[in-house]
Design goal:
This protein has 263 residues and is an alpha/beta fold. It contains 9 helices and 7 strands. The chain has helices spanning 12-23, 35-46, 64-78, 102-130, 152-171, 190-193, 200-213, 217-230, 243-252; strands at residues 3-6, 27-32, 54-58, 83-86, 133-138, 177-183, 237-239.
Length: 263
């Protein structure tokens, strides 16, 4: 039975992954910034799965000590950590880079990049000590080098993650630790809608794109979980929205109506 730690797993893709891994018999440690959010997610998951295979630990990925506590708690509760997924991330309003508030820039970089680096540091050191483990880092828009006006700061952090994945896979080569990437594609969650709170017109355009090309978390996360559990290769890139799938959805999008944002 594998133990999975997922940062930022109280909602969205992270919560979907927790649910999917539990459904596959794994032990899961849920993480979020506030104890209240962790408790709420725990209650929701425990209603569907064996509570004995579930644990929660609040912590801010921007705080190295919190990430160390997350590791220590997981090991104390389940004995080891087999998979650590750095999923926590935030976006920003869809405006030009020079219009993004300085405090928002700092938050996006701190959580998406520095927080991920802290997670990698803690997980890799712990896995080297225990003699095995696999770290997965969550990619996003910008990881493949694409650009789009309005998402520059977020995209820059995700572009850095592609480099980080490759470099860490090389640095851990020959050890018992593996490092890989998850690419979920376009997933309709409040992560998306939160970026358009002051731009209703922009939100409608975003919804059009997601309804054509995207998916809900419950569609993507079970597939990702299966691939993670089957993968034993370091440097892997587990990608849901491949180029052929993207092209097919562009083709059929005009012939079908979807609304991924309905409750």
């Amino acid at each position: 039975m594998k133990t999975i730690v997922i940062t930022g797993s109280t909602r969205g893709i992270g919560f979907g992954l927790a649910d999917a891994f539990l459904a596959r018999g794994c032990q899961v440690v849920v993480n979020g910034r506030s104890p209240a959010s962790v408790e709420k997610a725990m209650q929701q998951l425990a209603a569907q799965h064996d509570p004995a295979r579930l644990h929660g630990q609040a912590g801010d990925v921007r705080q190295l000590a919190d990430m160390q506590t997350l590791w220590d708690t997981a090991v104390a509760h389940f004995g080891q950590v087999d998979v650590w997924i750095n999923n926590a991330g935030v976006g920003h309003p869809q405006v030009m880079a020079w219009k993004v508030a300085p405090e928002t820039v700092e938050q996006v970089v701190d959580i998406n990049l520095i927080g991920l680096i802290y997670g990698c540091r803690v997980a890799i050191r712990g896995m080297l000590a225990q003699g095995h483990g696999h770290v997965y880092n969550m990619e996003g828009f910008g990881s493949n080098g694409r650009t789009r006006p309005g998402i520059t700061i977020y995209g820059a952090t995700k572009a850095a993650i592609r480099f980080l994945n490759k470099a860490l896979a090389e640095e851990t080569e020959g050890t018992a630790v593996k490092v890989s990437a998850l690419s979920p594609g376009m997933v309709a969650t409040d992560f998306v809608t939160d970026q358009y709170t002051d731009d209703p017109a922009g939100l409608e355009k975003a919804k059009e794109a997601f309804n054509m090309l995207g998916d809900r978390p419950e569609t993507v996360t079970p597939w990702l979980a299966d691939k993670v559990l089957a993968n034993d290769e370091s440097g892997a890139r587990i990608q849901w929205l491949t180029t052929p799938k993207l092209l097919w959805r562009l083709f059929i999008g005009r012939f079908r109506q979807r609304n991924l944002f309905d409750d």
